[in-house]
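mind reviewing this fold:
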Amino acid sequence: MEKFNVFFEEKEEEYVIRWKELQDRVAEAKDSAEELMKVGREIVDFHGEMVLLENYSALNYTGLLKILKKHDKRTGALIRFPFVQRVMQQPFFTTDVLNKLVKECEAMLDHVFSKNGPSVPSEATEVEERCESTTVTENRDRLFRAPTELAEIKHMESVYVRQTISALRVLKEVRSGSSTVSAFSLPPLQTNVVEEDLKNIPILEQAAK
């Protein structure tokens, strides 16, 4: 358990620091679509790392339970109850801070995606007629860049959605009801509604490079 705790605490501390840095960068890049896109990519990766750490916690807890259950069955000793009580107080099992970071990260991703969503003005022709030539050129360039930016944003969303759905499925499997339910069993994870909402977001496949 000591190794579990050391690894988990180091990663959690690292994530707290990295999240603060990413929040600062988003604030600094609020007026630059290019910078927001760059930070957005990093936030997608960061979210995936934190979800993996959540999986790490759940899988290790479940693994320990199975080992203890097998030990008690073979030896007749009943060490599982007191040992699991200790496990539930360990840092690697206490994921409140990590869960909070994941939720904040998801909210930030929604903000970045919505802020970068390019829109095409419905009265572009009239705007061009009223603007000076330099402004018209800038508007045209922005409109030509829009499809590329939109595709990139959608791809980032796709990566984020795939990671989230995959992690939810793993956690659901780990926390699904077993043949022997006890006070130490992880509660079933209710993901039907969450997965349904995520599936409504179109997932784009990126061609292999």
